């Protein structure tokens, strides 16, 4: 018998019966025009044949082979998608890659701002006259998270009104102004205001970029392209740590680092002017001809008719923008619960605690430079993200997520064994280093990239921005709490006990993913949405 939690989570139906076209996705709708009914009637019979394949998503077995064959033969190979006809390397992703790469520069900026305070915080404190005050030093770092919290909350309204492309450009304003204020700060208040503005911009971008990639990427390459978020973040961290090395000898170098943060913001604002808008958003606001042109340009001519039919069958059923209250009703509440749960579990599996403590771990083996230690961690993180990009559309999201958390749990217990049992110092330090790097690597394989990829895939077109905004709001709250209480817990209970807790949470998350996560590999956003909406009782038209 399912638990109350299980009954609330996303579970696909054991069987599907033909229903009237255009399943209802919200609490109320006006009568659909005849053209909508016609579009839905053309699409739903074909979709009904595919729904039984989605049942494999909630089981331990992989999706049936024909589903994968269908996705790989999606018209994105020779000619249509920039491929070479299947005789060589599959290059169907090249058409959309420049657009996705431009948007993922926002994640590079996110990573840059994560690492930019790692080295020069003491110099900043000395120059702005709050040296020796750990609370104020922590506030300069954590005010960034507070801004991101508000940015995540406000992102949905911007995306729904202006679309992904314009919102990314608008969001560059606080990112650039915030970086300039921080670089020119003559007081603590100016530094805090600059960091807060940057946080707002980052909060919007972390919600927006996964949505944009999921909506503009062809189904076949959506997972691979989605990992660019994680890769961009890793590269940003590495860039800030590398650029911060001179700060060890130059007390004013922090200003150069903060000025440099303006450059990606300018490049994003200019680059997005030439990027494509999301075809799903264009269809949602009634610009079907523009959506059709973008699909033909990015996905290939053979994809236009089928994709437009699917998008119309879903989008035209909704005659108004979604509201936050819809996250309280089925089926949107299930996706919101899964999104919030994944980010909650991700943060309490200890990623930020491990990153914070990694410099001390490396110091025990003679690496005294915190910047160098963080650089090793960043390179390991990048390596894991690169491997994930190759596996995401082959192994699927669910397998990577489960394997990632199992690897993180093993790494935590390895570190606990090294520090809690009477071992030779060299062996103990080696286990700690191995466990730390293994944890970072396995996190980057699944827990990091999959969460941001999976949530927009499971969300409906109507509520996608709000589900993502809610999920990332949970992320920032948990991020703040872990950072606030981690050291206090370590001082009270010891590293071994805290890391054991992280390992247990990782195991629980793997179990959660095994039982409740739906596999989305090789399925269009519309196919996923239409199948999931059929489980909503009493919502038929």
From TrEMBL:
Record flagged with keyword Ubl conjugation: no
Signal sequence, start to end: none
Residues in coiled coil: none
Domain Major facilitator superfamily (MFS) profile: 99-521
Keyword Transmembrane in record: yes
Membrane-crossing segments per the record: 135-159, 191-213, 225-245, 257-276, 335-357, 369-388, 400-419, 431-455, 467-487, 493-517
Region of interest (Disordered), residue spans: 59-82
GO cellular component terms attached to this protein's record: membrane
UniProt xrefs under PROSITE patterns: MFS, SUGAR_TRANSPORT_2
UniProt main location, coarse: membrane
Cellular localization per UniProt: Membrane
SUPFAM superfamilies, per database record: MFS general substrate transporter
UniProt keywords, alphabetically: Membrane, Transmembrane, Transmembrane helix, Transport
Membrane topology annotation: Multi-pass membrane protein
GO terms, molecular function: carbohydrate:proton symporter activity
CDD domains for this protein: MFS_GLUT_like
Protein family per UniProt: Belongs to the major facilitator superfamily. Sugar transporter (TC 2.A.1.1) family.
The protein, known as: Major facilitator superfamily (MFS) profile domain-containing protein
Source species: Paspalum vaginatum
């Amino acid at each position: 018998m399912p638990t109350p939690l299980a009954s609330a989570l996303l579970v696909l139906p054991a069987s599907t019966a033909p229903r009237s076209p255009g399943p209802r996705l919200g609490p109320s709708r006006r009568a659909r025009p005849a053209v909508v009914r016609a579009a839905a009637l053309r699409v739903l019979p074909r979709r009904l044949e595919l729904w039984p394949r989605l049942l494999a998503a909630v089981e331990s077995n992989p999706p049936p082979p024909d589903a994968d064959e269908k996705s790989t033969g999606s018209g994105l190979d020779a000619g249509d998608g920039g491929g070479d006809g299947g005789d060589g390397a599959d290059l169907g992703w090249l058409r959309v890659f420049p657009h996705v790469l431009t948007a993922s520069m926002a994640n590079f900026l996110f990573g840059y701002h994560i690492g930019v305070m790692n080295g020069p915080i003491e110099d900043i404190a000395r120059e702005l006259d709050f040296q020796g005050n750990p609370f104020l030093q922590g506030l300069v770092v954590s005010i960034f998270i507070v801004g991101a919290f508000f940015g995540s909350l406000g992102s949905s309204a911007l995306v729904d009104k202006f679309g992904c492309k314009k919102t990314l450009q608008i969001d560059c304003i606080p990112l650039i102004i915030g970086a300039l204020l921080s670089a020119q700060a003559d007081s603590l208040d100016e530094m805090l205001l600059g960091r807060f503005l940057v946080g707002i911009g980052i909060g919007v971008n972390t919600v927006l970029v996964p949505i944009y990639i999921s909506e503009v990427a062809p189904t076949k390459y959506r997972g691979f392209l989605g990992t660019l978020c994680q890769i961009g973040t890793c590269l940003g961290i590495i860039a800030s740590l590398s650029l911060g090395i001179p700060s060890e000898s130059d007390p004013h170098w922090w200003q150069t680092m903060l000025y440099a943060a303006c450059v990606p913001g300018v490049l994003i604002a200019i680059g997005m002017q030439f990027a494509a808008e999301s075809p799903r958003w264009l269809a949602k606001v009634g610009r079907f001809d523009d959506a059709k042109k973008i699909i033909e340009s990015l996905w290939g001519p053979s994809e236009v008719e089928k994709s437009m039919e699917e998008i119309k069958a879903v989008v035209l059923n909704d005659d108004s923008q979604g509201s936050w209250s819809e996250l309280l009703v089925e089926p949107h509440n299930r996706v919101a619960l899964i999104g919030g749960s994944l980010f909650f579990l991700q943060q309490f599996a200890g990623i930020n605690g491990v990153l914070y403590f990694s410099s001390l771990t490396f110091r025990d083996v003679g690496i005294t430079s915190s910047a160098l230690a963080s650089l090793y961690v960043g390179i390991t993180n990048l390596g894991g993200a690169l491997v994930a990009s190759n596996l995401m559309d082959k192994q699927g999201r669910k397998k990577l997520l489960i394997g990632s958390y199992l690897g993180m749990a093993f790494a935590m217990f390895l570190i606990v064994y090294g520090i809690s049992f009477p071992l030779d110092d060299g062996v103990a330090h080696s286990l700690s280093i191995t466990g730390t790097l293994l944890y970072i690597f396995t996190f980057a394989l699944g827990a990091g990239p999959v969460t941001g990829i999976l949530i927009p895939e499971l969300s409906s077109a109507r509520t996608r921005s709000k589900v993502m905004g809610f999920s990332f709001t949970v992320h920032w709250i948990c991020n703040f709490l872990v950072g606030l209480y981690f050291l206090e817990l370590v001082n009270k209970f010891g590293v071994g006990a805290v890391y054991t807790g992280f390992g247990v949470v990782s195991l629980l998350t793997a179990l959660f993913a095994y039982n409740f996560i739906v596999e989305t590999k090789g399925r269009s956003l519309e196919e996923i949405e239409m199948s999931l909406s059929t489980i909503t009782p009493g919502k038929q038209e």
